[in-house]
Amino acid sequence: MTNEELIISYREGNKRALDELVAANQGIIYKIANKYYGINKKLEFEDLTQAGNVGLMKAVNRYDPNLENAAKFITYAVFWIDKYINIEVNGCSSRDVENTKLNNSCTSLNQFIGEDNDTELIEMIESDSADIVAIEDKLYHEYLRKSLENAMDESNTLQEKEILKFRYGWNAKRMTLDEVGNILNISTRYKVRAIESKAMRRIRSNKWVRRYGKEMYIKESSSRVSLYNDSTYSYIDKKIDLLIEDVFD
After folding, report:
1. Of the residues 33, 44, 196, 243, which has the fewest C-beta atoms closer than 10 A?
2. H helices of the chain, where?
């Protein structure tokens, strides 16, 4: 039975179908766990696979095979497995992740913090200029990362997003075309490459990504050149590629 058929059978009351589903997808969990293994020295490989199984169960409970144009279950499951293993590696509970949403949106050291929301972040930092610059860079990188993820949500399918994240090493080590194909059950490395290329074309066309590329061109250009000729757009595309390369790492 396929994953989708096993889910339907499980929801109809067949408890054995769930056991079969979990067993059938353990190989995927091991492959994703291996991507993260060694990043957090305190975690054993089993800790990562257990987190992956939590993500798998989350996917089982949320997946709707009856939706029109629904992603394959394996694509949906990879998203949740990767998410929960990443949470485990970073030592964050679900509540911790929710609490950091505000922090991840900060783009300035002038963000107010504290119980009464009356203290600027910069006041909590020693006045070493190098430290302040480093923190500003980190906050800006987080802003770019969040913005790029929003752009992917707008422009890419779930499968395309997962391929980009695996290929560029969004949260851990980069993966080869063959490794991505094995995880997402894509038949050949050439098909993975084709999907990756399509995903990149889509993300380059996103309004926010193109605006960022133009801004970088304007900042670095030493002369006035129309933003609408082919050579300029070629340069902007290069800046976009550098942005994606930097933010994904």
Report:
1. 44
2. 3-11, 15-24, 26-36, 45-62, 73-89, 94-99, 101-104, 129-155, 158-168, 177-184, 189-204, 207-220, 230-248
Q: Nearest 5 degrees, angle CA 231-CA 167-CA 31?
A: 175
- Asked whether the predicted pLDDT for residue 150 surpasses 70, the reply is yes
CA distance 242 to 213: 10
Q: Which of 239, 245, 75, 78 lies closest to 145, judged by CA?
A: 245
Spatial CA neighbour of 44 closest among 32, 53, 36, 56:
36
**Cα separation, 36 vs 47, whole angstroms:** 11
* The residue to which tokens 């030493």 are assigned: 222
Give tens-digit pLDDT for 184-211: 989 899 999 999 999 988 988 888 877 7
Is the CB of residue 161 less than 8 Å from the CB of residue 152? yes
Check: CB of residue 32 under 8 Å from CB of residue 16. Answer: no
The helix/strand/coil state of 227 is coil
Residue 239 CA to its chain's centroid (Å): 20
- What is the pTM for the complete model shown? 0.57
How many other C-beta atoms are found inside a 10 Å radius of the C-beta of residue 87? Answer: 18
**Quick one: tokens of 114?**
């504290």
Reference 148, options 249, 248, 80; nearest CA is: 248
Distance in angstroms (rounded) separating the CA atoms of residues 75 and 96: 26
Per-residue pLDDT tens for 13-69? 898 999 999 999 999 999 999 988 888 888 899 999 999 999 999 999 888 877 766
Contact assessment for residue 235 and residue 189, using Cβ atoms and an 8 Å cutoff: no
Q: Tokens 């340069």 belong to which residue? A: 235
